[in-house]
Amino acid sequence: MPWQWEENLNRYRDADTGRFISSASVRDLVDQRQRITGSGSDGLAELLRGGQLNTRDWETGMREAIKDEYIQQYLLGRGGLSQMTQADWGSIGGMIADQYRYLDGFTREVAAGTLSEAQVAARSRMYIHSGREAFERASARAHGLPELPAYPGDGKTVCLTNCACNWRIEEVYDDDGNLLGWNCYWELGEAEHCPDCVANSGKWNPLFIKVR
């Protein structure tokens, strides 16, 4: 099913049927990608335990998985390659660099042999899940929003990168059709909710961002 980005509407359309793609379907694709990439990181942990990979090769595999996940999630949120700017690529690079720094410390623990395969796999998946931040940032920027106070998956909540929440963004216009700003709703995902996410859903219901 080929998706086509409608820039004026900030939505995807099915190029074959002409129908709009629902936001729920887009989020399903976000989750699907994370499950697939997460399975790949599980495989790396298994190969590491079995001795087929050394620590350096495992780290290389993780870096590639993180990079791919962030790029693909950002592209999905932004509307595809045609919507990307230098600032967008710079933002992706900054997020990936942050994850690489965290991965350096994780790799030292792996090399020390203090973590079980299950612990390595679980923590590896958290790096993959953090890619949700890339999707949410890109989605907000596709609407023309400035920085939001937090993003699902950015690690600022108790659930850290396992956050399954999302921002729902609605444009607000005056009677003459001029954009006034955006109502931004922090919506709880289909998962057990941490106290921070519950609090966010209450205080940002909505969060109004005025056009600068």
Compact summary:
The chain has 212 residues and is of the alpha+beta class. 53% of the residues lie in helices and 14% in strands. It folds into two domains: 1-142, no CATH class; 147-212, no CATH class.
Q: Which short descriptors sum up this protein?
A:
212 residues, alpha+beta, two-stranded antiparallel sheet, 5 strands
Secondary structure layout:
Layout: E1 3-6, E2 11-14, H1 23-50, H2 55-78, H3 86-112, H4 117-129, H5 132-142, E3 166-173, E4 179-187, H6 195-203, E5 207-210
Helix pairs in contact: 1-2, 1-4, 2-3, 2-5
Descriptive account of the structure:
It is a single chain. The protein has 212 residues and is α+β, with helices and mostly antiparallel strands. The protein folds into two domains: 1-142, no CATH class; 147-212, no CATH class. Helix content is 53%, strand content 14%. The protein has six helices and five strands; from the N terminus they run ββαααααββαβ. The protein has helices spanning 23-50, 55-78, 86-112, 117-129, 132-142, 195-203, and strands spanning 3-6, 11-14, 166-173, 179-187, 207-210. The strands form two sheets. Strands 3-4-5 form a three-stranded antiparallel beta sheet. β3 (166-173) and β4 form a beta hairpin. The longest helix is centred in the first third of the chain and has 28 residues, at 23-50. The radius of gyration is 19 Å and the shape is globular. The mean pLDDT is 95.
